[in-house]
Each structure stands twice: as structure tokens, then as C-alpha cells.
Q: What sequence folds into this?
């Protein structure tokens, strides 16, 4: 009994830690597993079981395969043509959402959203439309499409691996499509007809406070070489800069704001500007003006580019001050501005404590792409063009053909999923489509640690009797109403978990409870497992429940309530569709 309350109490603490983001999710879960291991709640075999699970291994291999396709730029180029030929919001929604959801059934949806976010924003700028009308639908379409196949979302693979560990067959390749295709059709139809009216035209509202989501605060240092020292702001021509506005001057311990045209400039003055991401560094071309970074230094002129990136759920930078992260040496980049929840942060950049979803404007050096730790960021845009060579395009088509061939073999039952992905990865390296270092970089190790740790927590819930107790409670509350209510309660609890933590962790935590219910009520475990997989993926009501929602949160200029407004009805539609299908086909 003591073990029961210990596990229950620590699980609640873990959930609160995830909810309030006191540390990175994988750190919280791994620490909880270690605690259970030390206290004897789980054995060493149970604690490490997730690291050898077939579903977890397949997820890691799929990261590599998806990365090889993303590297080629084929998908980006194809959909760029869609955007070029679209003229209205309904036109783009109709042409974009359905193909993207189909693509998400066979590729990780995170790189898809990362690739399309800057495309859609640029298209909106050219057409005079608001990105907020399109980016949430983009995220939702990839989530819905990912439920169609076993590889469409890592959640399906995790549940598949858990079923195999239970001695069951697991999912066949297209088995999730029984529910995945209907909910995708229902969800995309809802988005096509209602997203425009439910989502804000945030572009116009934001322009009153900040010119656009890409407007930031930048700091310029006046050095002794500045030819206008001792002259006024107007004489130095700092009032007629395109897209830039001088907000204040920092002079020793004094802050001059607002700045008059007659204000005299001095050496060592720090000029605080607001401006567009594409123009704020133009000041550095003026003699004696240096763009300052979070390290209080600057990159050499003409040897940098600007990159705008979103801090990921799994970033090693989370909950640390920028100045304490050794940012420049780690990434060959420096932060010049931070944007959070549709607001520019105007405090000293080095003192900003980073949170998931923060948008960083970075000045990057020439070695940035080689040295960057990809798990730290979801990249949104860069001012430099990334032109793909013919060789890269050929390699991209090879990756796509290889994926298609492996899917065919798995679908026909010739080989297992993990075997197919292992062969595909080996062939990519043998034919030099990717290098071993690139393969290592494509894998999101933090995600794998989080998922693998979740298995140990699931074992603790079973060993302590907590899973059994929750299962008994759900059955007691819903069985008198009927089987439909039992399925509904499983869906709702899983969906609640996934809005608080990662979708994979929610699936692993809920799986033992669902299996207990299936055993007690003589339900097909595959049926109830599909409910868990769909409910864990269907995170639409908050920006924190699914990483693609977080990626579009800042760039779309959204507020938390925007996700609630459009996401809750979609949650309800998906829930009713899922539970109804499983109820009649069980």
C-alpha cells in the first residue's frame, strides 16, 4: 500500500513538473524512472525496457529517413509551386491541407511544419494576408494525417511497440487508417469551412503594437569611428531608416527615451532600435556602428546571416539565461533579439531565461549549419537562400523511392517495420545519401530518451497497482452507462494527459490503464489501443501539447485562446468520430 501511494504521489508531481515546465520533459521523466529504480518500484530490466523497444528503435530510424528526404528539398520545392499559384485563402487551404495531411502519413510532421511555416508567411506577405489564418490549420493537418499509418506519428509506433511487449501482434501498417482516414476527412473539412472565421486576422491587430511577428528590438553600439559623434540624431540620419525606429539610447546608467531629433550622440552610446528582421542589420554597414549580441560582441561585417528559430520542447537551452548557455561557442551564433507570445522582450538579452516557443533572432557565422544542435531549435526562416544541387535532388528521390519500397514490403508482411527501416538507413549510408554524422544529427535523441523513460513509468504504474486502481475507477464510473462511455473515458483521460505533456509520454502512461480495462471487460486490446494512440496525437486545444503547435505559435502571432477557440471543437469532432468507429468495429 505504501508503494501505491508513493507512485501515485510522485506521478502527480511529475505531471505538475511537466505542466509548469520546471525542467525539460525528458529530464523530468528520466529522473522519475531513476527514483522508481532506486526505491525498488521497478527492476533494472523494466527501467531500461524502453531503450530496446521496437517502436522506439523504429522512431529513431525514421528520423534518419525523414531527414534525408528533408535535406533534398524536394518536398519544399513541390509545395512552393502550390503556394505560387494560389491566390485566395480558400484556394490555398484546399490545395495545401489535403496533400500535406497525406504527406504526414509517411513522414514526420515536425520537419513538414518547419519547412512550410516560412513559405506560408512569405506568401501571406506577398498577398497581403494574415499568416494566422493558415499556420494553425497547417499544424492540425499534419497531426491528422499522421494518424493514418503506423509511421505517420511516433505515437502510433510507441503504442505498436507496447502491444508487442505485451505479446500481441501490434498494428499492421495501415490499421490505424480505420480511424485515421475518417478523422482526417472530418478534421480537414472542419478546417476548410470554419478556420477562416474562427482564427483571428492577427496581422492588423499586431501592427498597432509591433509591425509584424518579425519585428524585434536590436542594440547598436557607437564606436570611436562613428563620423557623427557629437552631432544630433537627425544629423546622423538615424531617423529615416527604412523599417527601423530608434526607441531609446542607453548611456552609462542613463536611458534616454523618447529620443529627440536634437539628442547629441556620444561614443559608447547604445542605440535601441525596433525593426524588421531583414533590415535591422543594415545599420552595421555604417562606419562606427556595431550590432550587439547577447554576448556583448558582434560578428564581422559581411560574414554573417540572420536566422529566426523557435526554441524546441527538448532544447538544452530551456530555463537558462542566454548568457549562461555558452551560446556563441556552441552554435557559432549570437542572439540579438527574443520574441515571446506575440511580444518583443525588451529586457537585456543575456538575462532572458528561455522557454519553449521563444523565437530567437540570431546572427550566425559561416559554420552555423555544421555546428548547430538541431534538437535545440525548430528553424523558421533564414535570410539566405538554400539552393539544392542536382545531386541532392537525385538523392532525395532515392530516399522517397526507398521509403515507398520498404512500406510496400511491410504492408505485404514480408519484413517487420524495424527491419525495413534498418535496411533503409543502411542503404542511405552505403550509397552516401547521408553521412554517419548526418544520421546522428537527424535523430532527436531527447525525444527517444523521453519515450524510453516513459516505459519505466508505465511499469511503475502497473507494479504499484495505480494503473489497476485507475482502470477500476473508470470502469466503475462508466460501465453502467455502456461500453461507449468506457471508450469515451479512456479517450478523454489520454487527451488530458497529452495536453499536459508530450503525446508519446501520454500514450505510454495511459497504455497500461487501457490494457487493464481491456482485460477486465474482455475488450480487444487492439481496439482500445487505437483509441489511446489517436487521443494522444489529437492535441489541438493548446500550443504546448504537440510540438507542431508550438512551432506555429509565435510565427502566427497567436494567443493561447486562439488554440482553444478552434481546437476544442476539433477535439470534440475527432473524439466522437474515433470512439464511434471503434465502438461499432470492436
A:
Amino acid at each position: 500500500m505504501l508503494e501505491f501511494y508513493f507512485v501515485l504521489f510522485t506521478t502527480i508531481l511529475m505531471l505538475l513538473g511537466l505542466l509548469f515546465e520546471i525542467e525539460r520533459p525528458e529530464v523530468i521523466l528520466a529522473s522519475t524512472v531513476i527514483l522508481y529504480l532506486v526505491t525498488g518500484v521497478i527492476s533494472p530490466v523494466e527501467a531500461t525496457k524502453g531503450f530496446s523497444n521496437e517502436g522506439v528503435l523504429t522512431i529513431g530510424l525514421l528520423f534518419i529517413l525523414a531527414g534525408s528526404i528533408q535535406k533534398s528539398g524536394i518536398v519544399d520545392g513541390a509545395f512552393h509551386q502550390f503556394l505560387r499559384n494560389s491566390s485566395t485563402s480558400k484556394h490555398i487551404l484546399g490545395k495545401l491541407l489535403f496533400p500535406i495531411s497525406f504527406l504526414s502519413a509517411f513522414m514526420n510532421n515536425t520537419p513538414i511544419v518547419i519547412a512550410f511555416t516560412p513559405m506560408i508567411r512569405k506568401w501571406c506577405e506577398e498577398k497581403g494576408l494574415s499568416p494566422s489564418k493558415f499556420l494553425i490549420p497547417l499544424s492540425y493537418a499534419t497531426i491528422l494525417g499522421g494518424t493514418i499509418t503506423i509511421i505517420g506519428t511516433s505515437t502510433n509506433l510507441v503504442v505498436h511497440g507496447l502491444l508487442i511487449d505485451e505479446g500481441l501482434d501490434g498494428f499492421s501498417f495501415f490499421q490505424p487508417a480505420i480511424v485515421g482516414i475518417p478523422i482526417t476527412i472530418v478534421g480537414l473539412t472542419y478546417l476548410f469551412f470554419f478556420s477562416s472565421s474562427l482564427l483571428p486576422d492577427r496581422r492588423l491587430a499586431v501592427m498597432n503594437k509591433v509591425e509584424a511577428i518579425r519585428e524585434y528590438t536590436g542594440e547598436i553600439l557607437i564606436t570611436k569611428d562613428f563620423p557623427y559623434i557629437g552631432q544630433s540624431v537627425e544629423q546622423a540620419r538615424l531617423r529615416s531608416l527604412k523599417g527601423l525606429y530608434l526607441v531609446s539610447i542607453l548611456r552609462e546608467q542613463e536611458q534616454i527615451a523618447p529620443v529627440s531629433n536634437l539628442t547629441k550622440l556620444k561614443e559608447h552610446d547604445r542605440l535601441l532600435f525596433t525593426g524588421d528582421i531583414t533590415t535591422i542589420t543594415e545599420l552595421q554597414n555604417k562606419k562606427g556602428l556595431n550590432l550587439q549580441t547577447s554576448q556583448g560582441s558582434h560578428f564581422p561585417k559581411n560574414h554573417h546571416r540572420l536566422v529566426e528559430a523557435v526554441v524546441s520542447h527538448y532544447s538544452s537551452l530551456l530555463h537558462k539565461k542566454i548568457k549562461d548557455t555558452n551560446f556563441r561557442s556552441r552554435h557559432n551564433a549570437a542572439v540579438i533579439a527574443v520574441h515571446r507570445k506575440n511580444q518583443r522582450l525588451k529586457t537585456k538579452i543575456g538575462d532572458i531565461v528561455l522557454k519553449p516557443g521563444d523565437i530567437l533572432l540570431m546572427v550566425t557565422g559561416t559554420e552555423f549549419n555544421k555546428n548547430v544542435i538541431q534538437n535545440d531549435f525548430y528553424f523558421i526562416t533564414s535570410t539566405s537562400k538554400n539552393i539544392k544541387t542536382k545531386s541532392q535532388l537525385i538523392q532525395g528521390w532515392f530516399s522517397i523511392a526507398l521509403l515507398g519500397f520498404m512500406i510496400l514490403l511491410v504492408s505485404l508482411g514480408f519484413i517487420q517495420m524495424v527491419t525495413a527501416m534498418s535496411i533503409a538507413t543502411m542503404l542511405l549510408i552505403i550509397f552516401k545519401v547521408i553521412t554517419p554524422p548526418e544520421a546522428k544529427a537527424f535523430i532527436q535523441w531527447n525525444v527517444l530518451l523521453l519515450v524510453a523513460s516513459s516505459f519505466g513509468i508505465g511499469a511503475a504504474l502497473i507494479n504499484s497497482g495505480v494503473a489497476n486502481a485507475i482502470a477500476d475507477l473508470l470502469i466503475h464510473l462508466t460501465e453502467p452507462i455502456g461500453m461507449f462511455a468506457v471508450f469515451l473515458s479512456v479517450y478523454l483521460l489520454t487527451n488530458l494527459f497529452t495536453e499536459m505533456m508530450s503525446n508519446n509520454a501520454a500514450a505510454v502512461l495511459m497504455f497500461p490503464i487501457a490494457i487493464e480495462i481491456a482485460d477486465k471487460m474482455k475488450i480487444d486490446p487492439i481496439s482500445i489501443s487505437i483509441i489511446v494512440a489517436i487521443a494522444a496525437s489529437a492535441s489541438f486545444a493548446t500550443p504546448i501539447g504537440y510540438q507542431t503547435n508550438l512551432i506555429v505559435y509565435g510565427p502566427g502571432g497567436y494567443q493561447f485562446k486562439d488554440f482553444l477557440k478552434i481546437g476544442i471543437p476539433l477535439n470534440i469532432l475527432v473524439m466522437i468520430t474515433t470512439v464511434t468507429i471503434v465502438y461499432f468495429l470492436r
Remarks:
- The longest strand covers residues 215-222.
- The longest helix spans residues 560-585.
- The radius of gyration is 25 Å.
